[in-house]
């Protein structure tokens, strides 16, 4: 079995992590785009959400992650017991998440469900693959909120669709590969076809933002409905 080597080197991220809520048990933060959730094995990828927060909150751990290019809501546990309790909510799928995204082109339907199993394929690393045979079940819902044309330098307007995406499972790259499967990749996605053609102005980031996170506080049992407005 061949060893997969990750050669990705993250450029410096000068944006700060915004702390939206904190108590003695957990933190709710807004992760900037262009920052790793966890530090990589490569020492050049030391900077991350966890690396920064553990300086201020020793013992804190990430309950879930967001891709490097994705911004938005993350819940952070401040001790192992809270981490275990929150992880149980994620594994039981009682946590609901909503993402805001800009997709290339105009979607025909106003809403729908993408049901397509996702598999790891070492030959495609770091990309994932849609595979009905060896993939794990993956399901996402989408709802169109706006269709518009973005003016461009070359004079040709770019058709875009603003959507809300709700993943019902939590596979790696799920929303990015599901949108590609729809035929409308997320704008700025370098892995699944959302980059603009060479010679045109480049999108500065992946247009995917974790905008809603709903779960129960692991100690009080109170419902928490976290919201973070999309920056694009």
TrEMBL record:
<dbReference type="GO" id="GO:0000455">
    <property type="term" value="P:enzyme-directed rRNA pseudouridine synthesis"/>
</dbReference>
<dbReference type="Pfam" id="PF00849">
    <property type="entry name" value="PseudoU_synth_2"/>
</dbReference>
<dbReference type="InterPro" id="IPR006145">
    <property type="entry name" value="PsdUridine_synth_RsuA/RluA"/>
</dbReference>
<keyword id="KW-0413">Isomerase</keyword>
<dbReference type="GO" id="GO:0003723">
    <property type="term" value="F:RNA binding"/>
</dbReference>
<dbReference type="InterPro" id="IPR006224">
    <property type="entry name" value="PsdUridine_synth_RluA-like_CS"/>
</dbReference>
<dbReference type="InterPro" id="IPR050188">
    <property type="entry name" value="RluA_PseudoU_synthase"/>
</dbReference>
<dbReference type="InterPro" id="IPR020103">
    <property type="entry name" value="PsdUridine_synth_cat_dom_sf"/>
</dbReference>
<protein>
    <submittedName>
        <fullName>RluA family pseudouridine synthase</fullName>
        <ecNumber>5.4.99.-</ecNumber>
    </submittedName>
</protein>
<feature type="domain" description="Pseudouridine synthase RsuA/RluA-like">
    <location>
        <begin position="25"/>
        <end position="181"/>
    </location>
</feature>
<dbReference type="GO" id="GO:0009982">
    <property type="term" value="F:pseudouridine synthase activity"/>
</dbReference>
<dbReference type="GO" id="GO:0140098">
    <property type="term" value="F:catalytic activity, acting on RNA"/>
</dbReference>
């Amino acid at each position: 079995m061949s060893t997969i080597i990750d050669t990705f080197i993250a450029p410096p991220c000068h944006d700060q992590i915004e702390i939206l809520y904190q108590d003695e048990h957990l933190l709710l933060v807004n992760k900037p785009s262009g920052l790793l959730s966890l530090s990589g094995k490569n020492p050049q990828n030391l900077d991350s959400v966890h690396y920064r927060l553990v300086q201020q909150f020793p013992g804190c751990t990430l309950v879930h992650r967001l891709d490097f290019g994705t911004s938005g809501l993350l819940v952070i546990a401040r001790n192992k017991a809270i981490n275990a309790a929150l992880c149980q909510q994620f594994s039981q799928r009682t946590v609901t998440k909503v993402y805001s995204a800009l997709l290339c082109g105009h979607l025909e339907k106003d809403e729908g469900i993408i049901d397509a199993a996702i598999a790891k394929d070492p030959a495609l690393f770091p990309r994932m693959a849609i595979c009905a045979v060896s993939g794990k079940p993956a399901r996402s819902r989408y709802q169109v909120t706006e269709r518009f044309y973005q003016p461009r330098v070359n004079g040709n307007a770019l058709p875009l669709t603003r959507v809300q995406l709700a993943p019902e499972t939590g596979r790696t790259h799920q929303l990015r590969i599901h949108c590609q499967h729809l035929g409308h990749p997320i704008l700025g996605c370098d892995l699944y076809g959302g980059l603009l053609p060479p010679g045109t102005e480049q999108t500065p980031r992946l247009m995917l933002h974790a905008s809603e996170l709903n779960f129960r506080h692991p100690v009080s049992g109170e419902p928490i409905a976290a919201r973070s407005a999309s920056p694009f």
